[in-house]
Amino acid sequence: MAYNNYDSEFSVKSIIKWVAIGLGAVLLLCILIGGIYSVDPGHRGVLTTLGKVEQKSYPNGVGFKWPFISSMQEVDVRTQKMEEQTSSYTSDVQTAQMQYVFTYDLRPDNVHVLYETVGMDYESKIVVPKLNDVLKDVVGKWQAQELVSNRDKAREEVLAGLQSQLDTRFFQNISFQFINIDYSERFEDAIESKVIAEQKAQEAVNNTQRIKEEADQKVITAKAEAEAMRIKSQALRENKGLTEYEAVLRWDGKLPQYMMGNTVPMINLGAK
Predict the structure, then answer these.
(1) Is residue 268 part of a domain?
(2) Is residue 261 one of the residues assigned to a domain?
(3) Cα–Cα distance measured from residue 54 to residue 34, given in angstroms and rounded to the nearest whole number
(4) Which residues contact 169 (CB under 8 A, 6 or more apart)?
């Protein structure tokens, strides 16, 4: 009977022992797993220990950290692309509906500073507000019709504004492009009518200029002909034989069939 009690007591101790060993192994495994971190390609790691940010950005790969008290936050440092639509007023109080593409890169070596000073929601806190402010400033300088025809110049102004407004410690390789700029249908119809009217007005100006030039040319021609006639008349008055000379030049060599008198018309060959 005592033997059976001993076996039972030994069995319970063995179970407790193996359970403790198992729990210890699980705890050790958790510690080991909790002490390993990994950073994916195209990312940088920000390590925090008890809420304090380590002053370095960790490259992609696998490493060790303090288990339970440290955590690794991954930050995407690949090119970020924003393709959005927004609206803003032009200088002549027209609503411009703009579709654009905005891209930028984070500076990999400074993501820990960005994380510490701004946080992971840096885009909504910094990027979007700055972008909207720059767009309003630039679009507000242009009249609606001029904005469309000077889109590339406006794009350059937006890009320059973003480069000056966004902190260069965190952002680089900034790019901006307008995809489309639209206005209300009523305003676009008004622009089209204005363009047509301007084209017709220019056509009328061109026609007026053409008619004036043609009239000026006729005056010049008439003056030239009158001057030629004046010179010719003066020459005829001063040279009596010039009339007969021109008649000889124009004579075809045929004598008229009927002649009055014994002389050839308009030819004076002398007494001989």
Answers:
(1) no
(2) no
(3) 18
(4) 107, 110, 113, 114
Q: Indicate if 154 and 214 belong to the same structural domain.
A: no
Its domain, for residue 31, covers: 14-76
- Cβ atoms of 87 and 150 within 8 Å: the answer is no
CATH number at residue 166: 3.30.479.30
Closest CA to 77 of 132, 115, 48: 115
Question: At which of 76, 97, 114 does a domain end?
Answer: 76
Residues 120 and 193 in one domain: no
Q: Which of 57, 76, 95 is at the close of a domain?
A: 76
Instruction: Tell me, yes or no, whether 143 and 221 share the same domain.
Output: no
- Note whether 177 and 117 are within 8 A (CB): no
Integer Cα distance of 169 and 152 in angstroms: 28
Cα–Cα distances (Å) from 225 to 190, 220, 249, 250, 255, in that order, read: 52, 9, 22, 21, 33
- Residues forming beta bridges with residue 172, ordered by sequence position: 105
Residue 264 belongs to some domain of the structure = no
SS3 42: coil
Q: Are residues 90 and 171 in the same domain?
A: yes
Tokens encoding 220: 């010049």
pLDDT in tens, the chain (272 residues): 544 555 565 576 777 777 777 777 776 666 666 678 889 999 999 999 998 999 999 999 888 888 878 889 999 999 999 999 999 999 988 889 999 999 999 999 999 999 999 999 999 999 999 999 999 999 999 998 899 889 999 999 999 999 999 999 999 999 999 999 988 777 766 665 665 566 667 776 777 787 788 777 877 887 777 777 777 677 666 665 556 656 655 656 565 555 555 555 554 544 44
Question: Alpha-carbon distance 38 to 74, whole Å?
Answer: 9
What one-letter code names the amino acid at 257? Answer: Q
Q: How far apart are CA 122 and CA 176, in angstroms?
A: 19
